[in-house]
Amino acid sequence: MSQKIRKLQVQGVHHITLVGADRQTSIDFWEGVLGMPFIFDQPNLDDPSQGHLYFDPGDGRLITIFTSEDRKPDRRRTPTDPGCVHHIAFSISQATFWQVVERLDARGIKHSGPKDRGFMDSIYFSDPLGLTIELASYRFEPPEGCRHADVMIEAHRIRVARGDNHIQREHLADAIELLVERTQQSLSTSRTAADPYRN
């Protein structure tokens, strides 16, 4: 008798662990460049010869780094073979996004410059070990009670229905309007657009 196949439902990213170089390089990059508080420090419980540093990226999740004083930074690009990490993206505000170029330039860190992604702005650069880091800033805030993912799926549906190539601001605005209508009540008999300036 075969058993029913069932999902293992995840509910978010718990943490991401990266293999780092020495301890100080990790602290200087993750806290000293990206501003992530260094919150926890212990040995790697699977290999006590390594350290295990924990950083808070701002949402209460964790970025952890295995460190060893025997490893030195190597700025060559990390592998992008199948199964490897291509890049890690971190969320930043629009206020911070528009300071990134100036602040990376002040450190002499090469970067991509701002990239228009339609629904967000992005900039890319490498950590001291060659891992590509993306700083991403959404161009919208979801309606109360909704998540960014809720807006994205609705914007995607709108984009596909219109035959557009990729999500743009108009798709986002229309998705937000749809979600507000769907999730927030109104006493109006009609929620269609109206013109109060007509003669």
TrEMBL record:
GO terms for molecular function: dioxygenase activity. InterPro entries: Extradiol_RC_dioxygenase (IPR052537), Glyas_Bleomycin-R_OHBP_Dase (IPR029068), Glyas_Fos-R_dOase_dom (IPR004360), VOC_core (IPR037523). The keyword Aminoacyl-tRNA synthetase does not apply. This is Putative ring-cleaving dioxygenase MhqO. It is an enzyme of class 1 (oxidoreductase). It comes from the Bacteria. Keywords: Dioxygenase, Oxidoreductase. The keyword Oxidoreductase applies. PANTHER family: RING-CLEAVING DIOXYGENASE MHQA-RELATED, RING-CLEAVING DIOXYGENASE MHQE-RELATED. Residues 12-138 form the VOC domain. Its EC number is 1.13.11.-.
